[in-house]
Specification:
507 residues, alpha/beta, six-stranded mixed β-sheet, five-stranded mixed β-sheet, 23 strands, globular
Length: 507
């Protein structure tokens, strides 16, 4: 029996899962780490925390599984996208990573658009300049921390940093690199034109590869540290959503998934490049060789629920700890008792600004309609519904681009909640299906490792043999009708507040 390891570098923690060659999870370990917010709208993490979590989770799964290290056929990665990791000539980290949900780079994004041209930038990179993307972060460091920039010799994405630490090899792959605003997405290579206009030295960027290609091997030092064998193959892997697509079988036209993790994403497979001229949703390279994806990204989906939990639901957290239950299960059970519409309370989930579909870093979270009758349980229901409304807006954009699908797979922490899944089914008016294996991104990373090391002939063939689904949750017509009026009002709120958000940011 051969085994595969998928390492999923997330925002809240790194999860490492060891699978057998049939996709069954044998051992799993997660280590969490902090998010640093030195100023309002900023978000950073320490790559040292990622590396510590990677080592500890690898040690744990190898010890728990008790398998021979020689039976690990390969290791793959899934990782949070867009984060900036800057290394010096010795490969040492120069500063904390500015991560995907950081909103400080509005001025740099305007500069990028001016230098390249709005239409030309979308033509080349398939996306506008957005504060979450990596190019703006690079320019911000150059503008605000010139001494750090001067010492920089290597620019990596988060998961690519972990792979470098495991193998000693620098590299990038197309699905993650497509979110940097520097990749020629249609041609799957760095854009010399963008780099020249932004005055970014090409030598700072690693070579770019397909996601399932072999990237390197475990070094002797890492083998001694983790319990792996020296020489174990490591493949490039994919961005978190690209890997989740592999782990849910969304590798063919007509398939899509929704994930509610820290961020919220709707992700559809495409056999050719499809671009929204307004840049409201993103077109990236797929982790499937020669394919592309169309996806939306909202910045504070599960983060909104986490914020509410941490600030208002301490008793439920203590109860959950005593019962050894997930506090979110207790919370969503309570939300189920509140009627649709949360007693006329609507939540806008813009805690970190917003990307899809409004593209406004100045926007902020709102409870609209708050009155003295409302309790924290109404707020809870409103948060759950508001996150789903934000996803529905993006669904409407995808449908307007001609991207169609008859059902949608649910993944991420939100996908484990039957309450949230039913909301999605009702608001989307689509069946919602889950995958029997809940390890989406980590499983996708492992499948890519299996393809790269020859265990599977292709990504699609691997998915056909490994991915199994559960019965779908169908929309309830009566509920869909009730939600529609609230959804329409939700869509009216941001345009009415847009100017006020800008004024607030200037105070």
């Amino acid at each position: 029996m051969k085994y595969l390891i998928g390492i999923d570098l997330g925002t809240s923690g790194t999860k490492t899962v060891l699978f057998d060659e049939f996709g069954k999870a044998i051992a799993s370990s997660t280590v969490e780490y902090p998010l640093y917010q030195p100023e309002n709208g900023w978000a950073e993490q320490d790559p040292a925390d990622w590396w510590d979590a990677c080592v500890k989770t690898l040690q744990s799964v190898m010890a728990e599984s008790k398998i021979s290290a020689k039976d690990v056929a390969g290791i793959g990665f899934s990782g949070q996208m867009h984060g900036l990791v800057m290394l010096d000539e010795n490969g040492e980290v120069l500063r904390k990573s500015i991560i995907w949900c950081d909103g400080r780079t509005a001025a740099e994004c305007a500069d990028i658009t001016n230098r390249v041209g709005a239409a030309r930038l979308i033509e080349l990179t398939a996306n506008p300049a957005l504060t979450g993307f990596t190019a703006g972060k690079i320019l911000w460091v150059r503008n605000n921390e010139p001494e750090v920039y001067k010492r920089c010799r290597h620019i990596l994405l988060p998961k690519d940093y972990l792979r470098y630490k495991l193998t000693g090899k620098y590299g990038a792959e197309v699905s993650d690199a497509a979110g940097m605003n520097m990749l020629d997405v249609p041609n799957r290579c760095w854009s010399d034109e963008v780099l020249k206009k932004l005055e970014i030295d090409h030598s700072l960027l690693p070579d770019v590869h397909e996601s399932s290609e072999l990237a390197g091997h475990i070094t002797a030092e890492v083998a001694a540290l983790t319990g792996l064998s020296e020489g174990t193959p490591v493949v490039y892997g994919g961005g978190d959503n690209a890997a989740a697509a592999i782990g849910t079988g969304v590798v063919e036209k007509g398939k899509a998934f929704i994930t509610i993790g820290t961020s919220g994403v709707i992700f559809a497979h495409a056999d050719s490049v499809a671009v929204d001229p307004g840049g409201r949703v993103h077109t990236f390279c797929s982790a499937v060789p020669g394919a592309w994806t169309v996806m939306s990204c909202t910045l504070a989906a599960g983060m909104s629920l986490q914020w509410l939990r941490n600030n208002f639901f301490a008793p439920e957290m203590n109860t959950a700890k005593g019962l050894e239950q997930d506090p979110y299960e207790i919370m969503t059970a309570q939300a189920k008792r509140v009627p649709i519409g949360a007693n006329r309370l609507i939540y806008l989930p813009y805690l970190m600004g917003e990307r899809s579909p409004i593209l406004d870093p100045n926007s902020r979270g709102v409870f609209f309609g708050l009155s003295a009758i409302h309790t924290k349980y109404d707020m809870l229901r409103a948060v759950l519904e508001g996150v789903v409304y934000s996803q529905r807006q993006n669904l409407d954009v995808l449908l307007g681009m001609g991207v169609e699908f008859s059902e949608i797979y649910a993944t991420g922490g939100g996908g484990t909640s039957s309450v949230w899944r039913q909301m999605i089914a009702d608001v989307f008016n689509l069946p919602v299906t889950t995958i029997q294996n809940r390890e989406g991104p980590a499983l996708g990373a492992a499948i890519l490792a299996g393809v790269g090391t020859g265990l599977y002939s292709s990504v699609s063939e691997a998915c056909k043999s490994i991915i199994k689904t559960n019965p779908s949750q169908d929309p309830i017509k009566e509920n869909s009708t009730k939600y529609e009026d609230y959804y329409k009002l939700y869509c009216d709120l941001y345009p009415a507040m847009k100017d006020s958000f800008g004024k607030l940011a200037g105070l």
